[in-house]
Specification:
There is one protein chain. By secondary structure, this protein is mostly beta strands. It contains no helices and 11 strands. Strands 1, 2, 3, 4, 5, 6, 7, 8, 9, 10 and 11 form an 11-stranded antiparallel beta sheet that branches. The chain is elongated and about 70 Å long.
Length: about 200
């Protein structure tokens, strides 16, 4: 099951089932998967019983992603995970996201946007357990173009079934540009202004 919103910052890939805390393969006792499409709904669900390892007891792991196509080219989705393949702690993650696409703007241009929110529940980690962000993009090969994005991964956000590059960070990006091609010429005029902050501690 792959979950990779454009804004990122969530667990990019929920694919740690069957792996130990060090990334080594672990035997799977049994499990099942459901994937497909029902009407406008896309469904992906995986549940397994992972064998014990030297330091971790056998555990039940579950991940489910459901999304629906809405409007003309947009979608809304939800994700739930349960279990921690790398430890004996309980862990749950719940999230929702929305992606918007409008490709009917004048001149063949398009507008893209997405927003997402996710929260983990882990014993011993209280508060500051969310991850969220948004992005807005106006791509164009000629004329004006621009984008803006924001994401925050809080200190105790822990998606045990996925990956986070770095927690307790806040990241903002923005840029605007313009490109003009002269008629009957290989010359072009362009400018671009960008603003990017490296992921920085929230406090």
């Amino acid at each position: 099951i792959r979950y990779q919103p454009r804004s990122r910052g969530l667990g990019d890939v929920y694919k740690r089932q069957g792996l130990s805390s060090t990334g080594q393969p672990v035997d799977i006792e049994y499990g099942g998967r459901i994937s497909g499409r029902v009407g406008r709904w896309n469904i992906g669900t995986l549940a397994i019983r992972q064998d014990e390892t030297q330091n971790v007891d056998a555990s039940d792991l579950f991940v489910s992603r459901v999304s629906a196509n809405i409007l003309d080219n947009s979608n809304v989705g939800f994700i739930v995970t349960k279990g921690d393949p790398g430890s004996d702690r309980d862990n749950s993650v719940y999230g929702a996201d929305f992606s918007y696409l409008n490709n009917t703007l004048p001149g063949g241009n398009s507008l893209e946007a997405d927003v997402w929110y996710q929260r983990s529940d882990t014993p011993g980690l209280v508060g500051d357990d969310a991850s969220y962000g948004f992005g807005l993009r106006y791509p164009s090969s000629t004329g004006f173009r621009g984008r803006i994005g924001f994401k925050e991964v809080q200190r105790n956000f822990y998606p045990a079934m996925g990956y986070v590059n770095r927690s307790n960070v806040r990241d903002t990006t923005a840029d605007v540009g313009y490109t003009h091609f002269f008629d009957d010429s290989f010359l072009q005029s362009a400018f671009s202004v960008s603003y990017t902050t490296s992921p920085s501690p929230r406090d």
